[in-house]
Design brief:
Distance between the termini: 52 Å
Structural class: alpha/beta
Order of helices and strands: EEEHHHHHHHHHEHEHEHEHEHEHHEEHH
Strand order of the largest sheet: 5-6-7-8-9
Mean pLDDT: 95
Number of strands: 11
Oligomer: single chain
Shape: globular
Length: 467
């Protein structure tokens, strides 16, 4: 039985600020970064995990990862795998580390990196991609793998078990379907705030040609500018001439598009403010963008202002615009309250903000109970590789639906991963199938050597040029 014997931690930063990738109204200077860990054992078995930041402070997260990972040293891997929910609780229960959360901030996302690495190791030990490992669990095993403290007023283990058993017999059908057609995706790469109108138009046309029919743009710096950029995107996605050859417009009134403000080709536009407004400001600003017919406004205000989101949702509902959030919801309790307060139309889990797969499963279970679709956040570096696994778990084993769901896709930095995600000709994620890829987050050693901060070859070269 392998034992955890050590770990390696790397501060890896990519200079995306040079091209404007990731720019929005709140985050104007982004160097996409990975606080990356490899868990080691006394055998060949390893586990890779990471959490995501946008540059400075990544070193602080790496320090926290080391402290969390120390808790696993000497543990038998099979004992850890036997009850991943119990293991998650053990990881969270160091009283001194918990104090500097609790269950939020740097210590929480650091715990997520370590928990993700442990799940990666578990999947590798069973020679299955992470999603397949989890969907093959019995309902009892899946419930046992989740994080349960503080959410029993929203969903109980018994309710979750009953919910999972009701769709267990049809899991194989859903797995076969998604393997065949892929998981629906939407694209954000065309809508960064720092891009010129010409670049926005070019990237939007390219995305339509790739088969995408859901698109997201950043808003919040200037309303008139946002309206102009939104009209550019709408003029392309609503025009049948840009559809791929042989593709017909989708019915905007179909069940999977109903209530999404789809245009004449069946294309959907979403907008994202990245927390820039106060509540009244958000309401008035988004009303002014009604002309471009967004399905939802994402992160309209502070991410942990549950009642603020509820007020915004209520005010925008007569205008046909929904509310989405979750990218910065720092734990399952915030999601619980968002769902209980009817504050969101779309739940956006983040694979690196929550403390690993176990906590994500808890949010998926709650969202399924409340009937709110899960459309994960997946920008940055590594997030797309992660979240296709989580969406597959949701569809096959938990909610049983993907018709209204879309998973974010951003075409950045996939080349640094050994098992990168990919998109098919219909604008859908392909299902990871390599039995040895685990959670798909293993990075090339050459990429780590080049971009590790501050002494990777890229950063040393950049310092030399600056000098």
């Amino acid at each position: 039985m392998p034992k955890v014997t050590g770990f390696e931690v790397h501060d890896v930063r990519f200079p995306t600020s040079l091209t404007g990738d990731g720019t929005d109204a709140m985050n104007t200077d982004c160097d996409y970064s990975s606080a990356y860990i490899t868990l080691l054992t006394d055998s060949e078995l390893v586990g890779h995990g990471m959490t995501f930041t946008i540059g400075r402070g990544n070193d602080i997260v790496c320090m926290a990862i080391r402290e969390v990972a120390n808790r696993l040293i000497g543990k038998d891997t099979e004992d850890l795998f036997a009850d991943m929910g119990k293991t998650w609780e053990f990881m969270m229960s160091d009283p001194q580390l918990r104090w500097i959360g609790p269950e939020k901030g740097v210590i929480h996302i650091a715990t997520g990196a370590v928990n993700n690495a442990l799940w990666d190791m578990y999947a590798r030990s069973r020679q299955k991609p992470l999603w397949k490992l989890v969907v093959d669990f019995s309902p009892e095993e899946l419930v046992r793998s989740a994080a349960w403290r503080y959410i029993s007023d929203a969903i109980t283990k018994e309710e979750a078990l009953d919910m999972l058993k009701k769709i267990e017999s049809t899991k194989a059908e859903r797995e076969a379907k998604v393997r065949e057609i892929g998981y629906p995706a939407y694209v954000t790469s065309a809508g960064w705030l720092g891009y010129s109108d010409e670049k926005v138009a070019r990237l939007t046309k390219e995305a339509v040609a790739m088969g995408f029919n859901h698109f997201k743009m950043k808003v919040g710096a200037d309303q008139a500018n946002d309206l102009r950029r939104g009209k550019i995107i709408r003029s392309i996605i609503d025009d049948p001439q840009y559809l791929p050859a042989g593709t017909h417009p989708r019915d905007p009134n179909s069940e999977d598009l109903k209530g999404k403000n789809a245009g004449p080709t069946g294309s959907v536009l979403m907008i994202d403010a990245n927390q820039v407004w106060d509540v009244p400001q958000a309401i008035e600003y988004v009303k002014g963008l009604e002309e471009i017919k967004p399905w939802f406004i994402e992160e309209p205000t502070a991410p942990d202002d549950v009642l603020g989101h509820a007020a915004i949702r209520k005010a925008l509902k007569p205008h046909g615009i929904g509310v989405a959030t979750g990218e910065h919801a720092h734990n399952r309790m915030v999601f619980k309250q968002l769902l209980q307060a009817e504050a969101i139309d779309v739940c956006q889990i983040d694979s690196c903000r929550l403390a690993g797969v176990s906590e994500v499963i808890s949010v998926l279970l709650m969202s399924a109970k409340f009937g709110v679709p899960v459309c994960p956040h997946a920008g940055g570096v590594g997030l797309c590789e992660y979240v296709i696994h989580l969406s597959l778990i949701d569809y096959i084993a938990i909610s049983g639906t993907m018709e209204r769901n879309v998973l974010e896709f951003v075409d950045h930095l996939h080349e640094h991963f050994i098992a990168p995600c990919s998109i098919n000709s219909k604008g859908r994620y392909n299902v990871p199938t390599n039995p040895l890829e685990g959670y798909s987050i293993e990075m090339f050693q050459t990429s780590i050597a080049e971009y590790e901060w501050p002494n990777g070859s890229y950063w040393l070269s950049a310092k030399g040029k600056k000098a």
